[in-house]
Design a protein that fits this description.
The complex is a heterodimer of chains A (405) and B (718). Chain A has 405 residues and is an alpha/beta fold. Helices cover 49% and strands 21% of the residues of chain A. With 718 residues, chain B is α/β, with parallel strands linked by helices. Chain B is globular and about 100 Å long. Classes of the chains: A alpha/beta (405), B alpha/beta (718).
C-alpha cells in the first residue's frame, strides 16, 4: 500500500445546508486522501455527514467550500472559504486603518491585491466546478480523433468505411463522457434505488446508453458479462427488480455501477439493509471485484465489524467533522479520540458472556473537550494516524503514546 | 419460573396465487416471566409471521393449520377479535422494525402516546369491575354450598365486602389523583427551578408554571396536602406564581418566582413522604361503624382500623373464604376424576379407523361439558389446558370432517389436472404449468392430534390430583383477598387526559428523550431515527404490557443508537419484569439481549437453547453458517457466505430444508426430516448429525477459532 498514487483527494470539504436563517453544517472541513486500490471506510452515527460526504464527492450537491481532486483534476470546488477570506481582510483593513499612524495607501494596496487574488481563486473554482467534465471530454475527443485519423489515413476500401463508422461512434461517446462517471455509487436500499418499471437489463445498461452506446448487441453482451460477474445469470436480464431477493437486488446495484468501468466506487451502506448471510455474499462479491479490477472503494457504513473487515483505512466522523483517521488495525487497537472509543464500545459481538458485561462508553463532547480558548485541528500523532485535537489534548495523547512504547 | 406464553405446534400457511406457502411449520417454545427469547433467522424464515400470529395481526390470506398460542388461559388463535382487543397492545405490545411507518405522520407525538392510554384506561376499569363482580359472585356461591345453613349471613358479608369496597374506591381515587398531582409537581418544579436559576427559561415556561399552579391546587386532599393546614397558603402561592414570573421575565429576575416555587415544593415534598392510609380498612370503618374516623396519626390509625376490621368482619370472612376454597377444590377434584374417566372413555371413539360423525360430535360436546365442570371457579391462575380444551377439540373434529369433503374435491381436481397434463405431454407439447400435488388434509394426523389433546389433559389432571395434598389454603385465601383488592383498585385507576399527559412525558423521559415537554407537541418527522424508535418503544410501554415483541427494532439504526436502545429495552425489562420476544438477524445483538435463543430456518426451529449453548456449543450447521458468515473485529479470512437461497416454501423440501445449502449434508438429510435431538436439558437441535450413527463432524474453523479467541481474550482480561 506504500507510495501509491492518490486517486481522490478531499481537502477542507464543507457542505452547508440552509434552512431559513439556520445553516446546518452537514460536513465541516473534512480532508482525506484515498489511494489507488484501497478501501477507505467512513463510519459514524446517522446524521454525522458520511453520506453527504459521499454525495458531495460525486457532485450530487454543489459543495460550499473546499476542493475534491480526482485523478489530479479538480472536480468539485467551493467558494465560501475565499469569500470569507475577503470579508475578513476587509474587516481587518477597517480596523487597521483606524489605528494611529497607519500607512493608509500601503494597507489599501495590500487589501486590493489580496482581494484580487481571492477573486481569481473564486473564478478558477467556479470554472472547475462547471467545466471539469467539458475539459475532460474535449481531451477524450482529441485523443479519439488523433487515434482514428492515423488509422483512417492508413486504411483503405472496406476497412476504411468500417473505421469511419467506428470513429463516428467513438467520437459521440467521447463527447458524452464525463469524468465523474468514473466514480460510481452503490446505494443503501436496493429496493428504492432500482426503478421498478425497468427490466434489469435496462437498469444495468442505462449508464452506457446515456453515454451514447447505441449498439444493442454490445449492450447485451456487456450486461450479460456484468450479470455473470456479480453471480447472477443471463436469464435474469429480462426480469423486473421486484422478482429478486434483497441480496440479488444489491447485486444488480453493484452490476450497474461497475458496468461504467469506474475507478472509484462510493458504496453508501451497501449491506446495512441485508440479512447476515446475504451480507457476507455481497461483501465477498465486492472483495472479488476489487481484486479483479483494482477498484478503489469509499465504503460508508455504520456496522463497525464489517468496516473493520473490509477497509484498509478508516475515518471516523462526528457531527460533520472527521475526528480520527488511521489504518483499520491501528484504529481498533489504539483509538485515541474519545468519540472513537465510545463508538467501539458500542459494537455488539457474538459472545454472550462478553456482551452481558459490556459497558458502553458515553461520549459527551461538552464534558470531554474544552475548546473555548484553544481550537482543535486535525493532527498526525503517529505515521498515518490523525486525530482531531487541540494543543493540550495533543500533548496528552503524545505523552500517552510514549508511555505505551 | 412462571410461563407467560407458550406456543405449541404452530403451523401457518399463506394462500397465494401460486399455491400455499408454508411459512411456519410446527414450532414450539415457551416464554417465562422476565425472560428474553431471541428468534434468529434469515428473512423469510417465518420469524415475523410467528410474532404476528401472537399479536393476532396476520394477513387476511393466512391459514392457521394447527397449533396453540396459550396466554393467560386463552388460546390466542381461537379467541374472538373483541377478546383480542383486550390483549393486543395492552398485555402484548410490539415494537416494529421501521419507526417511521409505525408512527402516524400527521398526528403529534403526544397524542399518539396518550391515545392508547386513554382508550385502554376505560376498558381496563370496566374489565376490573366485571372481574371483581363475577369473582365475588362465585366466591359467594361456593361459600353457600359449603355452609348452606348460613346462607343469609354469607350473602350479607359478601355484599358488605362489595359495599365498603366502593367507599374505599371513592377515597382511594381522590387520594391517588391528589398524590399523583403532588408527585408530578415535584418533578416539574425541580426542572423549571433549575432553568430559572440558570436564567434560561424557555418559551413554554409560562405554560408549565400554569400547570404547576393548577396541580398544586389539585393536590389538596385530606391525606396528601391537608386543606385545613395548607389550603389557604397553596391557593395564595399559586395565584401569585404567574404574575411574579411575568414581572420577572422582563429583566430575567426570577428570585420571587423561585421563592414561591420552593415553598410549593417543600409542601408537596412533605405530602409525598407521608405514610399512605389503608383505604380498604378505612372504607369498612366509615361504612359500617357509623362513626367519624378517629383523630390520630395515619400509621396509628392504620393499626387501629386493622384491629377493628379483623374483629368485626375480616377474620370471619377469611375463614368463610377458606372454607369455600376448600370446598370448591374438593368439588373440582371430584369433577377432575370424573373428567379423567370420561376422557379415557372417549379415547377409543376417536381412535377408530373412520370416525363416526354423530358419535364424534356428541362425545365432543359431552367432553366439553365435563371439562368445563372440572375448572375451579375460584382459581386465580387460570388452568389454560382446561380452558382451551373445548375449542381445540371442536376445531380438530371440524377439520377432520371438513377434511373428508375437501380431500375428495382435491383428489378429483388432481385427477382432472393430471389427465390434462398427460394429454399435453403425450401430444408432444410442453405444458406451461406444473402439476401441483393435491392439497390433502392428513386425516390420520388430525386423529392423532385429537388423541394427543385428550391424553395431555388426562396427564394434566393426574398431575393436579397428585399435587392436591400439598396445597396451602391459608396463603391461597390471602391471595384471593389480594386479588379482589387489586381489581377494586383497578376500577379506581381512572386515566384522565392530564394524567395521561403526565405519564406520557414521564415515559418519554424514561426512554431517554431530552426536553419531553417540548417534544410532546412535535410531529414524528421532527425526530431522528433513534428518537423515533424511542417514541415507538414508549408507545408500546404506555399500556404497561406483560409481553413485548421486538421485531428487528434496531436494524435500521446505527451502532451507538442501537446500543442505547438495547440498553433501554434491557433496563425496562428488568424494571417491569417484562417478557421479551426479540426478533433479529444480528447475532451480536442476540448475544447482548437473549436469555434463550431459537434459530429458525424455513419455518422450523432448527436449534433452541440458552445463549451460551447457541454461541459456544452450537450444533446445527445452519447456526454454524450464520455464525461464520458474520465478520467480527478479528476476522481476516474470506467470509463463509451461505451459498444459494432459502427454499421455496410452496414446495417445502422433503428432508431437512437446509440440506441443499449445507456442506455437511448426508443422504438422509435429503430424504427425512430430522427430529429435535436433545443435547443437554436446555439445548436442542434438529439435525441428523446428532444421531448416534452419524459421523463425527467438527464445526467450521471460523466458528471454532472465534470461540477460542473469545475464551483467550476473556482469560487475558482476567
Amino acid at each position: 500500500m506504500e507510495n501509491q498514487e492518490t486517486l481522490l483527494r478531499v481537502s477542507h470539504l464543507c457542505q452547508y445546508f440552509k434552512a431559513g436563517s439556520f445553516t446546518t453544517k452537514a460536513v465541516d472541513d473534512v480532508s482525506f486522501d484515498i489511494k489507488k486500490g484501497e478501501v477507505f471506510g467512513l463510519v459514524g452515527e446517522s446524521g454525522c455527514g458520511k453520506t453527504t460526504t459521499g454525495r458531495s464527492i460525486i457532485k450530487l450537491y454543489n459543495i460550499t467550500s473546499g476542493d475534491v481532486i480526482f485523478k489530479g483534476v479538480r472536480i468539485c470546488a467551493g467558494v465560501k472559504s475565499y469569500k470569507d477570506a475577503i470579508a475578513n481582510a476587509k474587516k481587518e483593513y477597517a480596523e487597521n486603518i483606524k489605528k494611529p499612524g497607519a500607512d493608509q495607501a500601503k494597507l489599501k494596496a495590500e487589501l486590493d491585491k489580496f482581494v484580487a487574488e481571492q477573486r481569481e481563486n473564486i473564478k478558477a473554482a467556479n470554472n472547475d466546478q462547471k467545466n471539469c467534465d467539458k475539459e475532460y471530454s474535449a481531451k477524450k475527443v482529441a485523443e479519439v480523433t488523433k487515434k482514428y485519423n492515423e488509422l483512417i489515413s492508413k486504411a483503405e476500401g472496406e476497412e476504411k468505411t468500417r473505421l469511419e463508422a467506428e470513429f463516428k461512434n467513438e467520437l459521440r461517446k467521447a463527447k458524452n463522457t464525463k469524468l465523474v462517471t468514473q466514480i460510481q455509487m452503490i446505494f443503501q436500499d436496493p429496493i428504492a434505488s432500482l426503478d421498478p418499471r425497468m427490466t434489469v437489463k435496462e437498469i444495468i445498461a442505462e449508464g452506457l446508453v446515456i453515454q451514447g452506446e447505441k449498439d444493442k448487441k454490445v449492450l447485451d453482451e456487456k450486461v450479460y458479462e456484468m450479470l455473470e460477474l456479480v453471480g447472477l445469470v443471463r436469464e435474469h436480464a429480462s426480469r423486473y427488480p421486484h422478482e429478486f431477493s434483497g441480496g440479488q437486488r444489491q447485486r444488480i446495484g453493484v452490476a450497474r455501477s461497475i458496468i461504467m468501468n469506474p475507478e472509484l466506487i462510493i458504496a453508501d451502506e451497501p449491506v446495512s439493509a441485508l440479512d447476515v448471510s446475504v451480507q457476507a455474499q455481497v461483501i465477498n462479491l465486492l472483495n472479488d471485484l476489487r481484486e479483479r479490477f483494482g477498484l478503489t472503494i469509499l465504503f460508508i457504513a455504520h456496522d463497525l465489524s464489517v468496516v473493520k473487515y473490509f477497509s484498509d483505512r478508516i475515518g471516523v466522523m462526528y457531527y460533520g467533522k472527521l475526528v480520527e483517521l488511521a489504518d483499520s488495525d491501528e484504529l481498533f487497537a489504539h483509538p485515541l479520540h474519545p468519540y472513537t472509543r465510545s463508538l467501539l464500545s458500542a459494537i455488539p459481538l457474538p459472545d454472550p458472556i462478553y456482551e452481558k458485561a459490556r459497558k458502553r462508553i458515553v461520549y459527551n463532547p461538552l464534558a470531554e473537550h474544552d475548546y473555548s480558548v484553544d481550537q482543535p485541528s486535525f493532527r498526525e500523532v503517529r505515521p498515518g494516524h490523525f486525530v482531531q485535537c487541540n494543543d493540550a489534548e495533543y500533548k496528552k495523547i503524545m505523552a500517552g503514546l510514549e508511555a505505551q512504547e | 419460573m412462571e410461563n407467560k406464553l407458550s406456543v405449541k405446534d404452530l403451523r401457518i400457511s399463506f394462500k397465494t396465487s401460486n399455491g400455499k406457502v408454508q411459512a411456519v411449520r410446527g414450532i414450539n417454545f415457551d416464554l417465562a416471566k422476565g425472560e428474553t427469547l431471541a428468534i434468529v433467522g434469515e428473512s423469510g424464515s417465518g420469524k415475523s409471521v410467528t410474532s404476528k400470529a401472537i399479536l393476532g395481526i396476520l394477513a387476511a390470506n393466512s391459514i392457521i393449520e394447527s397449533g396453540e398460542i396459550i396466554y393467560d388461559g386463552k388460546d390466542l388463535l381461537k379467541i374472538s377479535e373483541e377478546d383480542f382487543h383486550k390483549i393486543r397492545g395492552d398485555k402484548i405490545a410490539m415494537i416494529f422494525q421501521d419507526p417511521m411507518s409505525s408512527l402516524n405522520p400527521i398526528v403529534r407525538i403526544g397524542k399518539q402516546l396518550t391515545e392508547a392510554m386513554l382508550l385502554k384506561g376505560k376498558a381496563r376499569q370496566r374489565e376490573s369491575r366485571s372481574t371483581f363482580n363475577s369473582y365475588l359472585k362465585s366466591l359467594n356461591a361456593a361459600m353457600i354450598k359449603n355452609n348452606p345453613s348460613d346462607a343469609e349471613r354469607l350473602t350479607e358479608s359478601c355484599k358488605k365486602f362489595d359495599k365498603f369496597e366502593f367507599k374505599h374506591i371513592e377515597l382511594e381515587s381522590a387520594f391517588n389523583s391528589a398524590k399523583e398531582a403532588a408527585e408530578e409537581n415535584l418533578d416539574d418544579i425541580e426542572k423549571i427551578a433549575f432553568e430559572l436559576e440558570k436564567k434560561s427559561a424557555g418559551k413554554d415556561a409560562l405554560d408549565r408554571l400554569r400547570d404547576i399552579s393548577k396541580q398544586a391546587v389539585g393536590s389538596l386532599n385530606t391525606y396528601v396536602i391537608d386543606p385545613e393546614k395548607y389550603g389557604g397558603e397553596i391557593k395564595a402561592l399559586s395565584s401569585k406564581l404567574l404574575p411574579s414570573f411575568k414581572a420577572g421575565r422582563k429583566n430575567s429576575e426570577f428570585e420571587s418566582t423561585l421563592k414561591i416555587l420552593y415553598r410549593i415544593r417543600d409542601i408537596s415534598d412533605e405530602a409525598v413522604k407521608k405514610p399512605v392510609p389503608n383505604f380498604f380498612r378505612m372504607g369498612y370503618y366509615l361504612t359500617f361503624s357509623g362513626k367519624e374516623l378517629p383523630d390520630m396519626p395515619i400509621e396509628k390509625m392504620n393499626d387501629y382500623l386493622k384491629e377493628y376490621l379483623d374483629k368485626e368482619f375480616m377474620l370471619a370472612f377469611i375463614s368463610d373464604a377458606e372454607g369455600a376454597l376448600k370446598y370448591s377444590a374438593s368439588e373440582t377434584y371430584k369433577n377432575m376424576r370424573e373428567a379423567i374417566s370420561a376422557l379415557n372413555a372417549a379415547l377409543p371413539i376417536y381412535a377408530k379407523e373412520n370416525l363416526d360423525r354423530k358419535e364424534s360430535y356428541e362425545a365432543q360436546k359431552s367432553l366439553a361439558a365435563v371439562v368445563k365442570k372440572a375448572i375451579d371457579p375460584l382459581a386465580i391462575v387460570k388452568d389454560s389446558l382446561s380452558f382451551t380444551f373445548a375449542p381445540s377439540l371442536k376445531s380438530e373434529v371440524d377439520s377432520y370432517f371438513n377434511g373428508i369433503v375437501a380431500n375428495r374435491k382435491a383428489l378429483k381436481k388432481y385427477a382432472r389436472d393430471k389427465k390434462k397434463y398427460e394429454r399435453i405431454i403425450v401430444s408432444g407439447k410442453q405444458a406451461g404449468w406444473e402439476l401441483a400435488e393435491p392439497n390433502v388434509t392428513d386425516l390420520e394426523l388430525v386423529k392423532e392430534n385429537i388423541s394427543r389433546l385428550i391424553r395431555r389433559l388426562i396427564d394434566h389432571y393426574d398431575e393436579a390430583l397428585a399435587a392436591a395434598d400439598s396445597r396451602n389454603y391459608d396463603s391461597e385465601t390471602v391471595d384471593i383477598i389480594n386479588f379482589l383488592m387489586t381489581n377494586a383498585s383497578g376500577v379506581v385507576a381512572k386515566v384522565t387526559r392530564r394524567i395521561a399527559k403526565h405519564r406520557a412525558i414521564k415515559l418519554m423521559d424514561e426512554v431517554g428523550i431530552a426536553e419531553p415537554h417540548k417534544r410532546y407537541r412535535q410531529y414524528p418527522f421532527e425526530f431522528s431515527g433513534g428518537m423515533r424508535q424511542r417514541i415507538v418503544i414508549a408507545i408500546a410501554l404506555a399500556a404497561n404490557p406483560d409481553i413485548l415483541i421486538c421485531d428487528e427494532p434496531t436494524t435500521a439504526l446505527d451502532v451507538t443508537i442501537q446500543s442505547q436502545i438495547l440498553e433501554l429495552i434491557n433496563r425496562l425489562k428488568d424494571e417491569r419484569q417484562l417478557s421479551v420476544i426479540f426478533i433479529t438477524h444480528d447475532l451480536g445483538v442476540v448475544a447482548n439481549m437473549a436469555d434463550r435463543v431459537a434459530v429458525m430456518y424455513a419455518g422450523k426451529i432448527v436449534e433452541y437453547g440458552t445463549s451460551e449453548d447457541i454461541f459456544y456449543h452450537s450444533a446445527h450447521p445452519y447456526t454454524w453458517a450464520l455464525l461464520s458468515s458474520m465478520p467480527d473485529l478479528d476476522t481476516n479470512e474470506k467470509l463463509e457466505a451461505i451459498p444459494g437461497t432459502p427454499p421455496n416454501m410452496i414446495y417445502p423440501p422433503k428432508g431437512d430444508a437446509f440440506a441443499p445449502r449445507n456442506k455437511y449434508a448426508m443422504q438422509i438429510d435429503f430424504e427425512r426430516q430430522p427430529p429435535m435431538f436433545k443435547i443437554t436439558d436446555t439445548h436442542f437441535a434438529a439435525t441428523w448429525l446428532l444421531h448416534p450413527d452419524a459421523p463425527k463432524v467438527d464445526p467450521p474453523k471460523a466458528v471454532v477459532d472465534r470461540i477460542n479467541r473469545m475464551n483467550a481474550k476473556r482469560e487475558g482480561a482476567k
